Amino acid sequence: MGDAFGMLLQECWNPTGPPHALDETVERDDGRTVVSDARVYFAPYSDWTAPEQTIVHLARGDVLDVGCGGGRLAVEMQQRGNRVYGIDSSPGAVRLCTSRGIDAAVASVPDLPLLHKPFDTIVMAGNGLGLLQDRETAPAILTALARTAREGASLLGTTIDHTAFVDDHDVRYRERNRERGRLPGQWRIRISHRTVVTDWFDYLFLAPEELEDLVAPTPWSLSDVHLDGAHYLAHLRLK
């Protein structure tokens, strides 16, 4: 086991030109493998989805970028005048962000009380709401994030409505999740790069009404949803 994600980002990144062409390989616990272009982690603003472009227009003040990855949004927001602090569980990702001029640390949500930094905006981009993991963990994560937020803060997160996944494998996977008491869009996955793989972890794809249910018992309220097909930006506000 190792930091496959960080290794992929560092190998893909090219500080003097376009990113190198590499594939990201995600394996689901039912054996399905999803391969995608890793260069998306370094795509320019003009190539982003509409929900992610909206994030940088809504972000204000001091920003916490949760799951900052290669620093795509952090760099853009910082160039637009925000003070950005990034956290990621991948040491390789954090090293890359630091090399790009982003103040970042290896951390996960349970480490947030150690930050001692209040934020005006919390960002969970790149389908970052998937980091909410599951029905039981999501409210605890959202509550922990609220403790780092200033009065009137916003949480801006993106995800994909899993009901758009109509492949037979995905339909059966949702059905199996329901039978096991899991959220239908809860994937158990790991990332591999060359000979290195991450640990298995849970990652959520949420329909808007499911997200609203997860938010309800927390200090946040779901203020707005910016739709772009199955992909959407959820705008949460501190109550």
Keywords:
about 240 residues; alpha/beta; seven-stranded mixed β-sheet; five-stranded antiparallel β-sheet; S-adenosyl-L-methionine; Putative Methylase involved in ubiquinone/menaquinone biosynthesis; ubiquinone; SAM-dependent_MTases_sf; transferase
Question: What secondary-structure arrangement, pairings included, does this model have?
Answer:
Layout: H1 4-12, E1 23-28, E2 33-37, H2 50-58, E3 62-66, H3 72-79, E4 83-88, H4 91-99, E5 103-106, E6 119-124, H5 137-147, E7 149-160, H6 168-179, E8 186-193, E9 196-197, E10 201-204, H7 208-215, E11 220-228, E12 231-238
Helix pairs in contact: 1-4
Protein name: Putative Methylase involved in ubiquinone/menaquinone biosynthesis
Pfam families: Methyltransf_25
InterPro entries: Methyltransf_25, SAM-dependent_MTases_sf
Describe the fold and architecture:
Keywords: Methyltransferase, S-adenosyl-L-methionine, Transferase, Ubiquinone. InterPro entries: Methyltransf_25 (IPR041698), SAM-dependent_MTases_sf (IPR029063). Pfam families: Methyltransf_25. This protein is α/β, with parallel strands linked by helices. The protein has one domain (48-185, 203-238): Rossmann fold (3-Layer(aba) Sandwich). The chain contains seven helices and twelve strands. It has helices at residues 4-12, 50-58, 72-79, 91-99, 137-147, 168-179, 208-215, and strands at residues 23-28, 33-37, 62-66, 83-88, 103-106, 119-124, 149-160, 186-193, 196-197, 201-204, 220-228, 231-238. The chain has a seven-stranded mixed beta sheet with strand order 5-4-3-6-7-12-11, with helices on both faces. Strands 1, 2, 8, 9 and 10 form a five-stranded antiparallel beta sheet that branches. A hairpin with a 4-residue loop joins β1 (23-28) and β2 (33-37). The longest helix is centred in the last third of the chain and has 12 residues, at 168-179. The protein is globular and about 45 Å long. The termini are far apart. The relative contact order is 0.17. The model has no long low-confidence stretch (mean pLDDT 96).
